[in-house]
UniProtKB/TrEMBL annotation:
Taxonomic classification: Eukaryota, Fungi, Dikarya, Ascomycota, Pezizomycotina
Flavoprotein is among the record's keywords: yes
Name assigned to this protein: FAD-binding PCMH-type domain-containing protein
Organism: Neoarthrinium moseri
One Gene Ontology term of the molecular function aspect: FAD binding
Domain FAD-binding PCMH-type: 7-233
Amino acid sequence: MAVDKLLSALSKEISPASRPATEQDIILVVRKALDFSVPFVPVSGGHSTWSSIDKNGVVIDLSTYTGVAVNTTQDTATVRGGTLMKELQTALHPYKRFTGSGELVEVSQTQSPDLLWAIRGAGQFFGLVTELVIQTYPYALLGNEDGQRMCGTFIFPPEQIEAVSAAVQQIAENKDRVNAGHVMIVQAPPDLKQQVLFVAPQAFCSAAEAARLFQPLKDIGPIQEALVPSTFETHSDHLDWVGVKGEFKRFSQIGLKGWDTNNFKLLARLHSELVADCADAARSGYSVEWHSPCKSPRALNTSFGLEDVDYWLNVLNWYSDAANHGFVGKMDEKAQAAMRVGTEPHEFVAYTNTSRDGPIEFRYKGVERISRLQGLKRHYDPEGIFTREVL
């Protein structure tokens, strides 16, 4: 990475991209950008809405700063900032290890513990994290030696929405088997002319156990169904189709109080309206994601604070024509409003990584949490170099 080349590009007032190969390169680029009062944004996977900047700024592209070092003695993995999830999964698989939620560490419990607390949930507002040390756990804790989960696929016509809703709620609230999944409202490929309900439940268990757990969906009589295993290193492969670069894609998430069939039916009608009035957005999908309530105590204290939200609305907007920005965005807002019917505004939840719209109180719950974040922001980034969020 040539810093001179970066500075030359800055002087020409174009929008350059720096690709640092080492941690020192990253530090140097950030310092030079600050010296020249040039705004910048870091980019890792490149899917974030906020991973771009106009011609007056610089993109710090971490795609060449990658790598995973596994320490089996200490049960940790050190992950460089540009490493993609697939690369992390592949690196951990030979050691039969997986990562635990909430164990992302850049500073320590003893060194700047307040900053550590902030990074775990609001890290994008406090700095450019170059490296993570992540606690790992043996696959055996998942119930098998391969990190295997069972993934179901059940496809239904929209006319069966009430029966599907009842089955999904029964599975999601199962007290004997922890599970998760999505029930998606999408247009069926290849012609994208017919709306379908695509239910994708998953659980760490045997095929026989999964079949019993997902039986309520099978009993409805799906158009198509499948039950297949997935091991840890392939857990994210099902998202490859949507991860392709190009066109316009936006992903928003809001937390839900629970399952509400009437709201979900309204969501399906809004998706039909979206596709009918804007055929360009036919690849868009509205889905509800669920997670069985966690049975284990959460020992770590972080700024995230949304770990007990078990249901989420996911809105994927996907279209080609920039002229449709306004309409698609308005339908996104309608979808969120529909799923919040019956929820008081002070209970609204928005996922921290996919939203910077609306009040900060939607993303970080509680006066004490927000006050602490604001104090740490004033201490570590008073000028708002890493956005002015929480200032």
